[in-house]
Every structure is written in C-alpha cells, then in structure tokens.
Amino acid sequence: MSIQSTEILETIKMVSDQNFDVRTITIGIDLHDCISSDIDQLNQNIFNKITTIGKDLVETAKILSAKYGVPIVNQRISVTPIAQIAAATKADSYVSIAQTLDRAAKAIGVSFIGGFSALVQKGMSPSDEVLIRSIPEAMKTTNIVCSSINIGSTRAGINMDAVKLAGETIKRTAEITPEGFGCAKIVVFCNAVEDNPFMAGAFHGSGEADAIINVGVSGPGVVKEALENSNATTLTEVAEVVKKTAFKITRVGELIGQEAAKMLNIPFGILDLSLAPTPAVGDSVARILEAMGLTVCGTHGTTSALALLNDAVKKGGMMASSSVGGLSGAFIPVSEDEGMIAAAESGILTLDKLEAMTAVCSVGLDMIAVPGDTPAHTISGIIADEAAIGMINSKTTAVRIIPVTDKGIGENVEFGGLLGYAPIMPVKEGSCEVFVNRGGRIPAPVQSMKN
C-alpha cells in the first residue's frame, strides 16, 4: 500500500486536533485444541495458548504507534466462545476459566479479553446454561474479562428462554458488583458477528482461522471537523464529505492492520470502521449529527441523520479496503459520548429514541444506565425489543445495560476511562413479566427463508 505525503499530513492533523486513533488491535484465538475433560488441564492449555500467541501484541502496537504517529489505544484478545470449549469438563461452574482468561490477558498486558460467551439463538446446551449462570461471579472476580450472549438471529428467531436468563444474569451481576459495573462487560446480541474487534462483545467465531488480526479504527472528531470545514449545503453533499473522510480513516487502519499482521506473523482478518466515541470533547457521534443541522441529538430527524452517517461511513470504508468487516458503522454508547450524555441529561435523548436509532446504526442500546430497582423481566423485555429490531432487519443489534444499585432517575454513575459516566435513564411503566415468562422462541421472520 503506497501512502502519499498529503495523506501523512492529513493523518498528523487527524491525530493532533481531531482525536483520531486506532481504537484496537485485537488478536482472535481459536481454543478448540485446548479442550480437555479435566478443567484444570483446560485452564492450563488456555493460559499457555493465549500467552504464546499474544505475547508480542502490546510491544508490536507500541512500535507501530511510534512509527506512524497514530495512537493505538487498546490491545485486546478474543477467544472461541467458552461454552463450546468447556463442555467436555461437565463442570457446574466456569468461573475458574474466566479467571484463567483474566490471568492470561494480564500476563501479556492487553486491555481486555472477550469470549466468555455462549451462542444460544436456537437453544441452550447444558454448557451454555452453565456459562450464563457463571457470568455474575465471573464478572465479580475478574477485571478485564468480557462476556457476551447471542440470544437471537434472523435465521433462528429469538430464544426467549435465553432472553429471560440474560435479564436475570444482568440483574444479578448488578447486585454483586460495585454500582453494577460488571454489567459494562456484558453484551447480549442478536446476529452477533464472528470477527468483531470491539469489546465487550468480541469473540473468535468458529469460521475463523487459528489466529487472526482484527483492527478497529475510530474518528468521530475527524468526521465532525470535516463537516464543519466543508462547503456542504445539501444532505447529498454531507454524505459525500462523510464518505471521503471515512476513506482516509480506513486507509490508516488498513496500513496498521497489514503491518501488525506481518510483524506478528498472524493473518490480517478485518478492519472494523466504527465511529466509536469517547467521553472526550470533540470525539462524539452525537456532535456529528448536530453538525448536520440538529440542535440536539435525540430531537426529530436524529434517526434519519444517523442513517445517513452510518451508510456513508460504510461506503467510504469499502472504497479504502477490501477487508472491511466487524460491526462497521456508528456506535451510540451513551456513557462514552459526551454529546449523548448531554442530550440524555436534558431529557431529549430517551430510551425510546435510542431504540429507534439502533434500527439504522451499528449495534444497539449501549452503555445505558437504568435505576437499580429495575426488575429482571424489564431488562429482558428491553433485550427482546432490541433483538427484534436486529432479527427483522437482518442486522446486528445488542444491549449493554447497567442497573445501578441504589441509584435512581436524575442521578449519575461514573465508570471512568473510556467508559465515561452516564445519567440514570427512566424505563417504561407497566410490566412485560408475563410475556417474558412465557419462554419458548419467537419464530424466525419470513425473510430468513433465503435459500
């Protein structure tokens, strides 16, 4: 890949003035060859494989960051869903495996490790259920392990038994971790992808190689400044500005990914071009939408503006790389976006509006703080609603919701770092308890019959 001098100068400006970064280099690692019926042996095999394959990741990121002058914020590991790997042990808890993942990740110095996961869109095996029931204690006793549950897909429908258990799991995790923080490391998916480099939902899918490099880039501030400095008047012209800016961002990520793959001798998988915000001023997806002409994110017109942004980002990325994948688009995590926080605090950005926005953007209801007394069945209802959007629209949707113990509407919760802080948002009156407790499966929609 040849990089022109003008592109280098543009990249320097993106980094210095516009909060551009490579958000993560993530190594996906297949753990099937670690399987053992002895859980102690399994743990040892997992530790050995992760620390062997991932040992040079952090140093490689430092070298590339210094060489190209681009911050590489996180280095991460994703692994095969542990429910698949641990089944042979017949153990009644997988907490020790989560602790092994934590130790291995800390030993090589990465930021997070994902894959304490179960894929239960059509049904739950005994191992899947053990894993899900292990999540609360696993989140309590580890620091950097992330967990995910895929409860639905367009092809399978929505597993409402798993949705019910997921709601109860999140509620329990909130009760036993400080201010519910353990829930910030749990994502419930519909249509989960196998090559996502972003946490907390990353896992290494069964269709992947033994090890793979996936890169996630981010640049909301770059897009916002490009819009503010452009002469765009019509929305057609706005889309062109976003598309061209996404192209530049993707070029940098492609270079970093290819170089990392070469240095680590691991194949390059995908580049996830997601506009992932941070709490820093100037690094907000909400502010991009406002730069398009909204007075505040969440007002009428927000969903259509977000649809334009998400589509233009994907089009620009696809022109710059043949490896665009993951969840590419625009993320809307409330606590991680200062513009979203401000809009939520004002009462204009509500849970209902966020749900509507998830129909047109990447992922879904992300880093939403709700009152600590929110019932488990309400959480399950929120998950089911979001999964329905993903199932019907053949897209990935997800919920990362945090019931904050002993806090209510109007209060805030501080998570720190990239996770920021969040206002406690109200949930609906009324109850979906009877609906959720029916269990069974919401059948797959007619568009699943594509073959």
From TrEMBL:
SUPFAM superfamilies the UniProt entry points to = PFL-like glycyl radical enzymes
The superkingdom listed in its UniProt entry is: Bacteria
Entry-linked InterPro entries: UPF0210
Gene3D superfamilies documented for this protein: 3.20.70.20
Q: In which family does this protein belong, per the annotation?
A: Belongs to the UPF0210 family.
Tell me the subunit arrangement: Homodimer.
- PANTHER family, alphabetized: UPF0210 PROTEIN MJ1665, UPF0210 PROTEIN SPR0218
Query: Could you tell me what this protein is called?
Result: UPF0210 protein SAMEA1410922_01367
Source organism of the structure = Actinobacillus porcinus
